[in-house]
Amino acid sequence: MDPESLSLLEDGLRKTMLSVSGPELDAALAELGWAEMLSDLSELAIPLVFRLLGETGSHASVLNDVVLLTAGREAGATPALPYAGNGWVVWDYAQAGDSTALGGLPLRRVDEGGHLRLPDARRAVGWWLVGSARAMLTLAQRHALDRVQFGRPIASFQAVRHRLAETLVAIEGAEATLTLPGDDNPDLTSLLAKAAAGKAALTAAKHCQQVLGGIGFTEEHGLHHHVKRVLVLDGLLGSSKELTRRAGAGLRARGSAPRLAVL
Fold first, then answer.
1. Could you tell me which residues are beta bridge partners of residue 82?
2. Which residues pair with 108 in a beta bridge?
3. N or C, which end of the chain is more exposed by having fewer CB within 10 Å?
4. pLDDT tens per residue across span 91-139
5. What is the DSSP-derived secondary structure letter of residue 95?
6. Mean pLDDT value across the chain
7. Nearest 5°: CA angle at 56, between 167 and 88?
8. What is the pLDDT of residues 193-202, one digit of tens each?
């Protein structure tokens, strides 16, 4: 896909996600050819769609499609997904009213799940986390430029600039990890990428909350929506802490660390 077509597709997806969410977004993405994009251009479709889900704050059940594609199963099923603390959840719109504890996502806890391979799904959630982190950074940057104290914008204060800079570095590092090819070690690479994205999003939530101050806690401001979302997404398919420990245990058992990127 050429850059112009990609830009048009991104603009169209962003406008769609800003206008609808949930089942309505599922239907809209189906009309836009999500199934074909995922099947034929997964390396392009997954980063684009899931990053935009994070940036816009919308949600759709497209993660199920990624999991089923990797497992070679027919689309339309609702697989159980692992959650932090040895839990399991399923995407269930019928129980959406009972899911407020899970960041506004229609996730319902279940007793047990299957054992699906999740490299593409972990990368997808990683891009979702990165998109949410970008959205929080944008809100904090805008506030830092508009908020004036002692006669100048707080963006000129060193402490504020350090928090914003640390957030940006974390996001850029997570994006770099998510774009590693991982052909030789897809499970390890995706596991580390999801962990890096989770850490970056949590860093963004912490620093952006501090930059925004009291207004960031209010219901009227958009930050709280993204903070709750990243707390849930970090736990989905394994939290950053759990995945980091799992990767370390695997490397210790192996006795060596594979080269994941050529620098």
1. 88
2. 90
3. C
4. 988 765 554 457 788 998 888 777 778 899 999 999 999 999 999 999 9
5. G
6. 89
7. 85
8. 999 999 999 9
pTM attached to this predicted model = 0.93
Contacts of residue 98, Cβ cutoff 8 Å, sequence gap at least 6: 108
Q: Where are the domains of the chain?
A: 3-81, 118-254
Half-sphere exposure of 85 (CA within 13 A, CB side): 8
181: Cβ contacts below 8 Å, ≥ 6 apart: 189
Pairing of strands 81-83, 107-110: unpaired
pLDDT band for 67, please (50, 70, 90 cuts): very high
Distance CA 227, CA 217 (A): 10
Lookup: tokens for 181: 């090819």
How many angstroms separate the Cα of 76 from the Cα of each of 22, 58, 97?
A: 15, 20, 22
For 118-254, CATH number?
A: 1.20.140.10
Is 104 buried (19+), middle (13-18) or exposed (0-12) by CB count in 10 A?
A: middle
